[in-house]
Amino acid sequence: MNYEDAGVSLARADKAMVGVKKSVRTTFNAGVLGDIGNFGGLFTLSHLNLKDPVLVSSVDGVGTKLKIHFGLKSHNLPGQDIVNHCCNDILVQGARPLFFLDYLATGKLESGVLEAVVEGMALACRENDCVLIGGETAEMPGMYQEGEYDISGTIVGVVERDEIIDGKSIAPGTVVLGLPSTGLHTNGYSLARKALFEVGGYKLDSKADGIEGTIGEALAVPHRSYYHSFIDLVHAKKLQGLVHITGSGFQGNIPRILPKGVSVQINRSAWKVPEIFNLIQKCGNVERDEMYSTFNMGIGMLVFAAQSDVSEIRRYLECKGETVIECGKVIEGNNNVVFS
Question: Structure pTM?
Answer without folding.
Answer: 0.94
